[in-house]
Amino acid sequence: MKSVLYPGSFDPFTNGHLDLVIRARQLFDRVVVAVAVNSDKRPLFTLEERKQLIEKSCSLLSNVEVVTFTGLLVEAIDDFHAQAVLRGLRAFSDFEYELQMALMNRNLKPRCETIFMMPTLKNSFVSSSRVKEIAMLGGSIENYVPKPVADAVRAKLAAGKKG
User: What is the pTM of this model?
Assistant: First the structure.
């Protein structure tokens, strides 16, 4: 069984992320969405909340598993029995960072292959950061995230205003 590990902070999980999961299912027997901690970011949702939102968003998709992990990505590849890492590239500016990460991962684990996929044109400009910014400023995010995520973002922001 060929598996791909799709790591990210996914805060929040967007339609661009979902698009890559759906398309990766056509290439691999199993897609493991691996929710990670990114120490450079201040997440809106906890690790477990992000995992649950992705599970809800992918509930109708077979052969998709959602997990959490901490530590090195190359260790997660072994832990989750993946043959490759999936990364999305929205713009040329993403490429330099992703290339450096892919080369570092391969240096740490020579069998670590990285597959790059481009989003559909409809999702090419969508990012978690922009979605959070739009939501915090009162804008509609329904076109950019799955419904369970939109509902959770609204609830989280409403709870923050009360507290």
Answer: 0.93
